[in-house]
């Protein structure tokens, strides 16, 4: 499910966070999936409990997971809403650049610069 590259300049919590977020985005982890406990995942990966806890906190802050007390941490339906919101924003942007007379290539360059 997740592997940690000890030689990577990316901190372990970020490796956990991005891997889980990617798995949610590509539906490997569908909505409603219960994630391993913080302790279980930390033990499995051989990293500190606080490292996994931080990754889970950041995923929760982003709305990708929800913690249901003792029941555990689950993939949130908000992950599906992210794509819908992004598509809506993209459509609005496309309408705006068309109205301004900005061509496709220039509009894509503007988006690329904004995402850096």
UniProtKB/TrEMBL annotation:
Taxonomy, superkingdom: Bacteria
Alphabetized SUPFAM superfamilies for the sequence: Winged helix' DNA-binding domain
Protein name: GntR family transcriptional regulator
Lineage of producing organism: Bacteria, Bacillati, Actinomycetota, Actinomycetes, Micrococcales
Domain HTH gntR-type: from-to ranges: 10-78
Organism: Promicromonospora vindobonensis
Keywords for the protein's UniProt record, in alphabetical order: DNA-binding, Transcription, Transcription regulation
